[in-house]
Amino acid sequence: MSNLTELSDVQKKELSDIAQNIVKGGRGILAADESSGTMGKRLDMIKVENIEENRRQYRQLLMSTNADISEYLGGIILFHETLYQKDDNGKLLKDLMVEKGIAIGIKVDKGVVKLLGTKDETTTQGLDGLGDRCAQYKADGCDFAKWRCVLKITDSTPSQLAIDENANVLARYASICQQNGIVPIVEPEILPDGNHTLERCQEVTEKVLAACYKALNDHHVYLEGTLLKPNMVTAGHGCTVQYTPEQVAVATVTALRRTVPPAMPGVTFLSGGQSETSATAHLNAINQVKALKPWALSFSYGRALQASVLKAWKGKPENVAAAQDALMHRAKMNSLAAMGKYEASMETSAADAGSLHVANHQY
After folding, report:
1. Interacting residues of 343 by C-beta distance below 8 A, sequence separation 6+
2. Is 86 a known active-site residue?
């Protein structure tokens, strides 16, 4: 009789293979798991009504892109609604990606709630019933999941309570996912809101990641079958000092080297409201840092892969091909950056260089 509190060698191999395949050879993740409300904000920007059919049309556009995109993407994260939507021919949208060899991920958290007695700090809810949901998602074709925790930098935050609580929640989520054959993406996002310096962000990032890996260890999470989705170490959007991509890269790699075990196969950075070109340039600089980097350093971008796609589409069927070209281009640029081979001269005029920052961003 199997012991349900321990993973078998077969389970470990499956988790490890999934995680490694997602980030193999410069591949990254398209984060298309915006909630219906957040998707509405994206559609508002191109004056498209936020109804299910328009959301389906847009996700169909993303997921029916030419099969060559599998050279650049190893995974796509979906919102619950999208997992069960079908294309115009009655085929499940997710199967369009599976056929390309792209793993299906699912957002499983239920949003942030405030922590009593803190300065507007939060934890993330959704652990209740998570085991049953993971089992169902696995049966429905999902191989990995995402759970986002959020921390803020001010003079007095993040507090130790917020750091510990969010680390513990992430570890519980990761443990539950693995028991159901799903690779957990661990996402402790430190928001770029504020005027803090690069050095302050590095200090906080190291503290948060150290707490996360202590919690993951305490909960017996199999690190080889996980991925990490952290913020890059950047200054706050209100900081008056301009740091170079090289400075961001060194600070980011240093923070990771001090805190993230080499058993963990891949770091898939969030874009955190950076412009499309800035997110790519920073990722490239990170991969060019001359230091031992034992993990794949790749991307899990939402806005930084989709901004120019939405602008090209504008909700019109005749623009689908142009929008898919924009997605293919951004995916390729970021895949090159994940191998340290990107150059700004490779960009097209369609790339979005404007900031995509949203204060106190929620999915």
Report:
1. none
2. no
Whether the per-residue pLDDT at 121 is higher than 90: the answer is yes
For 104, the 3-state DSSP assignment is strand
Is the pTM for the entire model greater than 0.90?
yes
Q: Please pick, among 100, 152, 229, 332, the residue that the annotation labels catalytic.
A: 229
Measured between alpha carbons, how far is 55 from 36 in angstroms, rounded to an integer?
A: 8
Amino acid code (one letter) for 148: R
- Does 318 participate in catalysis according to the annotation? no
Residues whose CB is less than 8 angstroms from the CB of residue 258 and which lie 6 or more positions away in sequence, other chains included: 206, 210
Distances (CA, A) of 170 to 80, 135, 232, 247: 20, 18, 19, 29
* pLDDT reading at 169 higher than 50: yes
3-state secondary structure of 301: strand
**Choice among 187, 189, 206, 276 that is catalytic:** 187
Per-residue pLDDT at 13:
98
End-to-end CA distance of the chain: 41
